[in-house]
Write a structure and sequence with these properties.
The complex is a heterodimer. By secondary structure, chain A is an all-alpha fold. Chain A has one domain. Helices cover 65% and strands 3% of the residues of chain A. Chain A is built from 4 helices and 2 strands. In chain A, strand 1 and strand 2 form a beta hairpin. Chain B has one domain. Chain B is elongated, with a radius of gyration of 16 Å. Chain B is mainly alpha-helical. Chain B starts with a helix and ends in a 5-residue tail after the last helix. Chain B has 3 helices and no strands. The chains are: A mainly alpha, B mainly alpha. The interface between A and B is large, with 52 and 53 residues.
Chain lengths: 134, 89
């Protein structure tokens, strides 16, 4: 029973990694490629580490494979965010079928400034609160 | 069990080859960085499978270190890219 579950976990994990690689190869631009690799590859590593934990079934090894899982879950979104941000700022071209790019009207590539859309004269004035010291 | 291990290793080797095609072809530098990060993640999976195959649990420590290195490399590459300003490649 354990063997069957282990084999299923291994095969599913490696298939998800293959899926991530195929997505990286076939999708049209940087952001869609990142969307394929980050999630599918993280799921693949998680499944394989679960298989390793079931195979050894000792406390230390299970703790280590869970450490790998937690580490992947924490770092994959951060790395994807940082690379996506850098890729947008260095001007990588988006896919021609992109529907909406909300950053484009709010970001100035020359001054590297982001607008929040709230920069009116009304908001720029000082608005004292009742609790402020005089 | 040995057959399953071999099959999953072959599948992950195929994934490494496909990723390497993107590293070579990738039109811009961020694409290559994403491909290299996927490379390190796939290698973590391969090391996990090899730990099962050889029965040596210490390989999981190597997997942790490889994952850490991949993350730090991604962060460093992103800083480097962003510092460089707009590129045209």
């Amino acid at each position: 029973m354990i063997e069957a579950i282990k084999g299923a976990l291994l095969l599913t994990g490696s298939l998800f990694m293959l899926l991530a690689a195929v997505g990286l190869l076939r999708l049209p631009d940087l952001l869609t490629r990142m969307h394929a690799t980050t999630k599918a590859a993280a799921l693949g590593v998680i499944l394989i580490m679960l298989a390793a934990a079931m195979h050894f079934s000792e406390v230390g090894v299970v703790a280590r494979s869970f450490a790998v899982i937690v580490f992947i879950l924490m770092t994959a979104p951060v790395a994807a965010h940082v690379i996506g941000r850098a890729g947008y700022f260095v001007g990588s071209r988006l896919w021609s079928g992109t529907v909406k790019d909300e950053l484009r009207p709010n970001y100035d590539p020359l001054t590297h400034e982001l607008k929040s859309g709230l920069e009116t004269y009304e908001n720029a004035k000082r608005q004292p609160r009742a609790t402020d010291p005089d | 069990m040995d057959t399953v291990l071999l099959i999953s290793q072959v599948i992950m080797g195929l994934a490494l080859i496909l990723t390497f095609v993107r590293v070579v072809r990738g039109p811009s530098l961020p694409d290559r960085v994403v491909a290299l990060e996927l490379f390190s993640t796939t290698v973590v999976g391969l090391v996990g499978v090899y730990a099962i195959q050889s029965g040596v649990a210490s390989f999981l420590d190597a997997a942790i270190v490889i994952a850490l290195m991949g993350f730090l490399a991604a962060i460093g590459f992103a800083r480097f890219l962003e510092r460089g300003g707009p590129r045209d490649d």
